[in-house]
Amino acid sequence: AKLKISALMASLPVQFTRNSLSTPYFSGRIRRSAFTEPRSFVTVHCSVRENGDDGQGFKKSLFPVKELGCIACAVISACTLTMASPVIAANQRLPPLSTDPNRCEQAFVGNTIGQANGVYDKPLDLRFCDYTNDQSNLKGKTLSAALMSGAKFDGADMTEVVMSKAYAVGASFKGVNFSNAVIDRVNFGKSDLKGAVFKNTVLSGSTFEEANLEDVVFEDTIIGYIDLQKICRNETINEEGRLVLGCR
Fold this sequence. Notes:
By secondary structure, this protein is α/β, with parallel strands linked by helices. It is built from three helices and ten strands.
């Protein structure tokens, strides 16, 4: 039986054995696709081997396995689901910095493969790029699954952009205009958003841990209750911002 899950995780060999005269030998293997591959998935493969007179044994499919094998396979699957995490994990290992000399200009084209789903033929690597005061090239672009760590967008016009599943830890967005944008599941951890404008912006599932939200404008922002609670914990939001958001 195979279970496919959209996730990223290291290889994890697991074996379950039981000593008896007719010993079922159960094994499980979890395989991981590389981060840079699109549509990566984890495969859980379960099989059974019974020891024969020759000591070599033979394999059977999962279906005739006794209860022990079924339980063991369920355990492996549960472990897989527990350890599998979204694209932006706490201790995620990012791919090496792209050597493409024109990688920063790719932002002006955007992600045209998977759109908001964050699927791409190769990473949209914008790390350490400088888009300070860009008033035309980023507007309305789809930057899904973009790697933005260390990039500078200060004063840029990013109205109507689609940033889904982007990784913007440590980036600078001071004074950026995010009006009418879709900001979905973006990691803004430790980023500087001082004076940024989120007007009529869809702001869902994004995290702002240790981010600077001083003087950020939240006007007619579309945000879920749980996401709102998380944002309200950020102590850099001024009183006006907290009032607009409805923080208690």
